[in-house]
Model the fold of this input.
Amino acid sequence: MKKRFITMTHSLYWFTNDLRLSDNALISLAAKQDTALSFVYCIDPQLFKSNHHDCQSMGQHRWQFLAQSLQQLNNTLKDYGQHLVIYHQAAHEMIEHYYHHHNVRTLYCSEQIGYNEQQTLLNVAKNHADLVIKQANTFTLYDNQQLPFSVNELPATFSQFRKLIEQTTPTINTLLDPPEYIARPLIAPMPWPTTLPNVSKERALFAGGEKVRLII
Done:
């Protein structure tokens, strides 16, 4: 009789602009699952490259703020027996790796507004029909259904938007508590990629992390 091997699927949470556990609808959704769950963040090397104006998308201060936010997020995840894995590569390359080498079939990702981020998800979905992509709104004050107009009728200026909102005063959603439990990770902790730039030690006005307050 031939032996049958059952390959378990796993889940992947791709952090983008939602580097927090508190008031995070997507974290609340992911915490309800039972399969192994990995948390990752991708830092695209293109962000550190200069354009034709000799400017970088990721400058020194932005990189310092991001690095601090990632470090604090990782420390918070440790309380759940979890950790954050940092990749210095394009997101689609990381997702491909987890799909083929770790049998990931569920991807959690915050709803994306940027064109490049949306294209990444569209291409991933196109190439892997069996990959379930679960998303949630994680970074806006109001949900689409709370607006007094459809998204297609979004005002052209902020002043017009503000006046319409002030007339209707929609209720702001109650803050979500961090989850009580998160499933165990898929892979072991990994050190930060050595290819990433050094983080400045200078004291900055803004420090990264969901628990940090403004430095006066």
